Structures are given as C-alpha cells and as structure tokens.
Amino acid sequence: MKYYHKEETANGQAKSPVKTEYISGAEAVLKCLLAEGVDTIFGYPGGAIMPVYDALYDYQDQINHILPRHEQGAIHAAEGYARVTRQTGVCMATSGPGALNLATGIADAIMDSVPLVCITGQVFSHVLGSDAFQETDVIGCTNSISKWNCQITRPEQIPEAFAKAFYIANSGRPGPVVIDITKDAQNGKFDFSYQSTKYIRSYHPLPKPKKDAIQNAADLINAAKKPFILAGHGIQIAGAQEEFKTFVEKTGIPLGCTIHGLSSIPNSHPLHMGMLGMHGNYGPNIKTNECDVLIAIGMRFDDRVTGKLSEYATQAKVIHIEIDPSEINKNVHADVAVLADAKDALKALIPLVKKKSYPEWYAEFAACDKMEYEKVIQRDMQANAKNEMRMGQVVKEVSDQTKGQAVVVTDVGQHQMVAARYYNYLSTNQWVSSGGAGTMGYGLPAAFGAKYAQPEREVVCFVGDGGFQMTLQELGMCSQWNVGVKIVLLDNNYLGMVRQWQQLFFDRRYSSVELQNPDFLKIAEGFGVKGRHITDPKDLKEAVAEMLAFDGPYLLHVSVEKEENIFPMVPSGCSISDTRLE
Amino acid sequence: MENKEYTLSVFSENKVGLLNRVVSIFTRRYVNIESLNTSESSMTDVYRYTIVVTTTEEMVKKLCAQLEKQIEVLKAFYYENDEIVYQEIALYKVPTAVFLEGNHVEKLIRAHNARILDIEKEYIVLEKTGHKSETEALLRELEQIGIYEFVRSGRISITRPMEQLNNYLKTLEAHQNVN
Fold first, then answer.
1. Which end of chain A has the least Cβ crowding within 10 Å, N or C?
2. Alpha-carbon dihedral angle through residues B157, B161, B166, B168, given to the nearest 10 degrees
3. What share of chain B is helix, strand, coil (3-state, %, to 5)?
4. Mean of the per-residue pLDDT values for chain A?
5. Is the pLDDT of residue A15 over 70?
6. Coil, helix or strand for A18?
7. How far is it, in rounded angstroms, from Cα A429 to Cα A556?
C-alpha cells in the first residue's frame, strides 16, 4: 500500500529529519492515538488485541480506557462521545466476534455520519484465511458499512494507516473507519515516527462552493414567494450554527429540522417551524409540498423525510447544499446543487441574499401548528382517562426542569419520536440518536459516551422498555465509572412502534410485541444504579427533580399508557401531503 | 427510463480489497456486472477497472458517484457504446481431428479473422478478438463441429473523447507540491 501525505509545519518549512523510536506495533498504536489527541478509548480486550492492551497498561496515565459489557456498548459510547464533541470517537475490539459486535455500530455511524476510528485485532498474518480461532474477514465484512478500512500485517504500516484513518474519519462527510491489525504486526518492533496528514491524492473531502452555484442559489432565494429551509445534521457537523442563524434571520425563511438537524437552531427561534419526517410536525411536512423554493442544507432526503418520492416537493425548485457529491440527485433532483460544507456555503450565500419577511407564509405554518396542537399535542401533554401517563408529558417535564439545555440521548422507537417532538431544544449539539440505522440498544451506551465526554452537561437518556433490554448491561459501565447519565425509561410493556404499525396497518394483529418485563429497579440496583418507579402522574414532577438532583447514574422507570400512538404520522409509502393527525 | 448498456471506466489506487468495495456498490443496488476487467493503467500505481452493466442512465450516474466516494477511487466515468472503442478476446479449444476433415475450419478462421495460438496432438487453441456478438458467432459455428472449451475476457475500452485523467492527476500532483 502506498500513502501520500504531507507534513504540516507552522512556518511551512520542512522539518528536520524525524526522530524515531524502536517500539512495538502495539505501543505505536497508542502513540498514534496520543498524537491525534485521543484521550479515551472505548474497548473490550480479547486474544488478538492483547498486545495493545498490554502496551496500554503503561499508558493508563495518558489514555482512559472504558470497558463496556459488550463491544456494541463500546462503539455506541464512542458514537455518543463523537456526537457531542464532534471529535473522532475511538473504539477497540478483538478479532472475530469482538469485531463483528462492532458491526452494528459501524453501520449506525456511517448512516448518521459519525466520525469513528475502530481498531480490531486480527489473527497472525501467517494464518489469515485458515479459519483460525476467532478469525473473521473484518475487511470483507465492513466494506459496505465503513467509510474506509484497511488491514495491517506489518508494524511499519501502522503510523501511516492511523494518520490516514483520522483524516478520513473526520473530514468531509464524517464516518467510521476500521483498522484491522494482525497480532504479529502488534508484536513486531520497528522504528516509529508519526506525522498526521491532510492530503490523500484520491480523496477531496472539502469542495469549495462554486461561485455560479452560489449565485444561482441566491437568485432563486431572492425571487422566492414561499421558500422553506430543511436543516440537516450537516449544519452542526460543520459547526455552522452561527452562519445558519444569520442566514435564516436575514432571509426570513421558515425552517424545518430533520431529526439530526434538531438543536442546530434553538426551538424558540420564531422561524423554527418544527421537525420534518414521518413523525415530524404537521406544518413542516405539509408546507414542503406547498413551498416554491426548497433549500436543503446538510441533509440527504432520507425516505423518512420525503415519504413517497414521486409526490415530494414536485412543485418546488430545490437548492441542495451538501458536502457529499453522491447525495446530490440521489433521491431528489436538485435544480441548484451547492457542493460544499454548510459553513462555507452559508458564508458565501449570506452577502448575496436579500433581507425579507413572509408574514402570510408564516401564518400558514401557525395554522398548521394550531391544528396539530388541538388534535395531537394537547392530548400528548396529559394523562389518559385511566390516569396513565403519556410519554409526551414525561418528556415535557424533563425538558422544563432541564430548561431545554440537556443533551438528549434516545434509543429507537416511539419514545425517540416523542423525545424529538417534545423536548424543547434550546442549546446546540444536544441531540444524540440513531436515525438512519434505527439501532435499538443505542441509547444507554451512547448516553454514557456523551456524559463521559462532557460531564458538565446534563445528559438525559430516553429509552423504551424494548431497546433498553438490548443493552441494559451497560448500566455496569455507568456504575463502574460513576457517569451520571439520567435514564428515563418510558415503559409501555410493548415494542410500541411495531405495535402501532400492527394496529394501524395489520388489523391489530399484535404479533410478538408484548414483553414480559423484568423488575427494572432490581436490575439497576444489581448494577449499583439508583432508581425509582412511578406510575401516577402526580409523582412525575417530583420524581424528575429527584433524578436530576442525584449525583450519579439514575434510572427513572415510568409506566406509561400501553397503547399510545405517535402522531402526526406519514404512513410508509404515502405522500407527506397525507400526513395523518389521528 | 430505459435500460442501456454502459461501460464504466474507474481509476483507482492499487489497494488490497478495493475490488470487493467496487463490486459491492453494484450488488447492493441489485445491478448485475456483465463484465469486469482490471489492470494497471498507463500511469504507474493507477489501476483501471472496465465494468459493463445494463441499467438506466440515472442508476449509472449514481453508481459513478458511489464509486468516486470510495477513498481510493480517483475518478469514475461512464460511456455509452458509441462513445468508446471496445474489444473482448475469446479463446476456443477445438479437437485437432476436425481440422483434418476438409477445409471447413480453415474457412471459419479466415471468415472470422481468428488465429491459431497453439497446436497439440489432441487440440488446437484459436483466438479471436471482437465484440461479444462476433466471438459468440464463431463459438456457435465451432459448436457445430465440436469444441472442448471456450473462454471470453471482460471488455476493455478506449474512449473516443480524449482522455482527461492524465491531466487531472497532474493537477493533483501539482496541488500536493504547492501545499
């Protein structure tokens, strides 16, 4: 393998000949991580990665190592860490089952553009392909779910591979990379030196916005009568929140957030009209099919956002601002494509757009909000006739008591949609959830990673009783490191989202969705995590306060209405114009 | 949108396992690869894949975008058949005995512009280059008189428009030197 990299120096002059150290590949791995500014590894040891773990023994004062209870916990924790810090998360596992247990998280990270470096041990190079103990073809298995991967069979390959890996993971559209290191490459000694890189001949992650594209976009925007902005994850990935706010306020264009676009601008902003998508707000969905210019920023027109593609925004001219060329015209045709990072594109656009306001257009959104409030929100904010709590009122209570400032981590399912809809996002980089992949079991370990990375922030993890049981062993990780994740378990005793679909689209044939749940408090107690169970709405306020006041991890188990449905809803395969409110 | 035959030219760094990534881009989208050829290009360290698929133009554009998304892929181009000069090679192993019965085989070789590569006591190996329909035509005729074995290569192609990749790479190298 040949690497192309250049050395960065402050004054642009070549450095003097690089000093080398004669060390093992295993130690080199740690030195590479340190050189890239890594202070935390989420990992699980095993046979083929043992040399790195042995080297780690001498580096414990420089690198924190977090031991989950399952490799999936490690990688989701690394994702949570990366999501709130926007720095590359690092996870590590052994060969075979260890590496494969990372696979779900790798797939999750590529879907949601999360920068990760995943290090896996591999069997000795001379037995590769012989079905050796705990051997799997990690490169083959991760090809279609990683941004880049490579296998290392000699220690000398380590520094260049790591330099490349860190550059690739967190440049352009971020994503997970996998480095698979054979045991002999970890054991072998070589002359180590490290240079980070910002150049790969075949990789150009940061296209500069083209002047004519920017001008065409500005012309469309300036001439628009009913423009609408779709705000995606790309805004926060690019760190373009300020530019975005300026752009929105200057143009006066209303906006809707994709699920990962949440917290790119505070919910309280008057031009923030809500969330897009299958369970998004009514106005943003309906108005997408009524606007004349649609400005999509850092988003990829996922099918959960568009509904039936052939009936999606066909009336609108589409401006697509996106860093990944393969997303342009993938699902929705772009009349103007601005191939760039959101920050660069918005910076270039702001001086060219006119200051405008669209009072009549805003009023149309307000009318939709009113309908949604009357038919959905009002109901979601209170207990039902049997005095059972609804998920929305729980999320609202947490939102109020955390003043909209907490990092909200979710698992996948109904509770996720409720958390997206009813938490009042007033800060930024505060939404951590599995969107594209919809990975149940993501919540708890991701919340750990977020809280570990930013202990000063309140981190609330909303989970359902289904997804929680997929990774609840990570209560052990929370307990061992005393990381104060506040877990709000919204328990309806069902796999609620699947049940909702079965109710609405499969004639209430409830097939394998009811759970026999354990005593969650006893489980938490077993792991040394404090908890409380509430069933009566009158206890909610005080229980949330108690949870938030507690110093350390805490499980608030809330029994909620069993057969609650999430509305509004764009039924699968339907047009967003057919959004149902009931 | 109608299906058409497209030829993709993909230029990449030489990396173990890249072929796997390239192929999975097609299989993931349920597009069948009709032929695939890979070899070092005229530029040292740059590999060239020639891939033939039958699909829509919309899909082939997306395939190229996904190919270029691969870190080690330098460029991916797609062409319709009238934009390229292309060729395949086929080898035929036929029993020597049929050559000895009159001049039928000789006529076939002349008519199809094939050539003899190897003569053994048991068999003779013929070679023919051409488009698939041409190598196929000779195969059908040889089948009438008996054939032991047949193999056809993947397509290789040269573009009719002047190839821009050399220039593109030079720009990249210049960019690297400036930085």
1. C
2. -120
3. 40, 40, 25
4. 96
5. no
6. coil
7. 24
SS3 A581: coil
Q: What is the pairing mode between strands A293-297 and A227-231? A: parallel
- Please identify which of the residues A147, A183, A287, A317 carries the catalytic annotation: A183
Which runs of consecutive H residues, i.e. helices, occur in A143-182?
158-169
What is the distance between the alpha carbons of residues B11 and A328, in angstroms, rounded to a whole number?
21
Walk me through the domains of chain B, giving residue ranges and CATH numbers. 4-84+156-178 (3.30.70.260), 85-152 (3.30.70.1150)
| Chain B residues within an 8 Å CB radius of A203 | 71-72
CA nearest neighbour of A290 among A243, A256, A321, A252: A256
pLDDT in tens, A369-427: 999 999 999 999 999 999 999 999 999 999 999 999 999 999 999 999 999 999 999 99
Amino acid (1-letter code) at residue A268:
S
Give ∠ CA B131-B134-B137 in degrees, rounded to 5. 150
Residue B42's pLDDT is 84
Look-up: residue for tokens 């729980």? A394
Q: In this complex, is the C-beta atom of A330 within 8 Å of any C-beta atom belonging to chain B?
A: yes
The residue type at A311: E
Backbone angles phi, psi at B41, to 5 degrees: -85, -170
Question: pLDDT tens digit string along B107-121?
Answer: 999 999 999 999 999
The full length of chain A comes to 582
Helices B18-28 & B57-69, crossing angle to 10 degrees? 150
Nearest CB to A202; choose among B24, B28, B73: B73
Q: Which residue of B has its CA nearest to A171?
A: B71
Catalytic residue status for A538: no
Please state the ipTM of this predicted complex.
Answer: 0.91
Sheet holding B46-55, edge to edge: B33-40, B46-55, B4-13, B73-80
Give CA–CA dist A447/A408, Å, rounded: 8
Q: Is B141 on the interface with A (CB under 8 A)?
A: no
Burial class of residue A352 in the structure, from the number of CB atoms within 10 Å of its CB (0-12 exposed, 13-18 middle, 19+ buried): middle
CA distances from B96 to B41, B119, B135 (A): 38, 8, 20
Residue ranges of alpha helices (H) inside A259-339 are 282-288, 303-306
